[in-house]
Structure formats: C-alpha cells, structure tokens
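pasting for ref. prot 1 ->
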Amino acid sequence: MAIVQNPITGRTKKTFGTAVFSKQFGNNTMRSKAMDVRNPRTEGQVNQRNKFSIIVDLIRQVLPLINEVYAGSLTSMSPYNKITSINVKNAFVGEPPELDHTKVVLCDFTGSTVKNVTLTGQPDQVMDIAWDPNTTNADELASLLTFVLFNCSTNEAAIFRDAAARGDGMASVTVPDEWVDAQTSLHVLTRDFSQTLAGAPKGIVKFKGGADLSSVVK
C-alpha cells in the first residue's frame, strides 16, 4: 500500500505495485510495469539480430560519407536508419545468412555514374581501378571520385576521398597490410551535375565491382 500524489491520480492511497509514473515531453503518463521480460532466441530472431549487428558495424565506418551524400534531405528517418534497414533486408544470402557485398547499398539515389568498373589486386596491397567515365559533361569529367573499399572477410572499410578525376578512367589505391588474401568490394561516389541537393551537384554512390577473385589483395 502506498500514498501516491501525481497529476493523473491526485493524492491517492491505493496499491500501485505495477504502475510506473513518468513525464515525457511535458505530459504526465502512467503505464503498467512489465511483470515478465522475455528475450526470445528463436533461430529467426537470432539471425535477424546477427544481420543487424553486422550492418551496424559496416555502416558506422562510412556514416560521415553517407550523411554527406544525403545532405539533410531525409525527413522521416536518418540516413543511418534508412541504409541500415535496406541492407538488413536485402544484403544477405543463404542460411545462416551471410553478407553479400555485391548487394550492399550505401545510398539509394540514382543518377550519373561510371560504368564498366574493374578492381584488380596488384603486389604490395595496391588495387588498380579502371572505369568508363560514362559522361560527356565537362563538369562531371573534371569532378573528383571517392572510392570506398570493403574487406569482404572482415567488413572493414577504407575510404579514398577525391582519389581521381572522373575523366581519368583509372587510378590506384593502397589498402592496409592486414587485408592481404582478402577479396575486396568497391563503391564509387560520383557527382551528377544535372541534379542538385543542398546547393551542390547530387552525390551518387553505387557498388561498382569486386567481391571476386580479381579483387583479392596481394
């Protein structure tokens, strides 16, 4: 038995063993306290939690880049929540689920991007990247590309900002020593000068290559 004074009940002398009072956003609330707490561990729920954990670790490494590309354009959710949801739903294959790096999405915008991209491992952890610029727009040809490489074994990320001009058609980057013998995957950030967002050409990030034998780090 307790004497409770609360804007909801007033001064009341009753049993409140399962009641919880709180104030949120200026409103007084009363709710029932859960008597039993369960943490289900069915196979499906465990798989879902594992997928979520993998994607969270992956996305957090490149979140500043993702936020930069979305540039405050989302109103109903954050870029982090949007991209996490897309990948948890679509980027896994098999049972138990395994991450398929060819299905990873860092941004769902569409627009001008490079094509026919190859990613080839060379000695000393050098990765050769070649592409077709896929544009005749002078501004797009002069714009700088950003490369995002993922280690397909550990899901570690390496970001190479402004690594080459789109019109160059080729570039080389060096990944960490610890990546030797791992396959890698490549996402490319381009700028679409026919679209603007936050006063700048719209950023387009797409998976472009790798996750195959030619992408193994040497």
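and prot 2 ->
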Amino acid sequence: MSAIRLLVLGAVRMHGRAHGYQVRNDLEYWG
C-alpha cells in the first residue's frame, strides 16, 4: 500500500511540475 502510494505521489510530483498550474485551475473549476 505504502509502496503504491509513494509511486503515485512520485508520478503526481513529476507530472505536477509541468501541469501543476493546469491541475490547480481544473480543481478550482470543478470545485
């Protein structure tokens, strides 16, 4: 469980560096 969680967090961090602002805008739009 923790291993998968680390992989997910790592993927989100890697992807977030390029699309962090877009994701934040999407969250605000949907939220």
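The CA atoms of residues 6 and 30 lie 26 Å apart.
Helices lie at 2-30.
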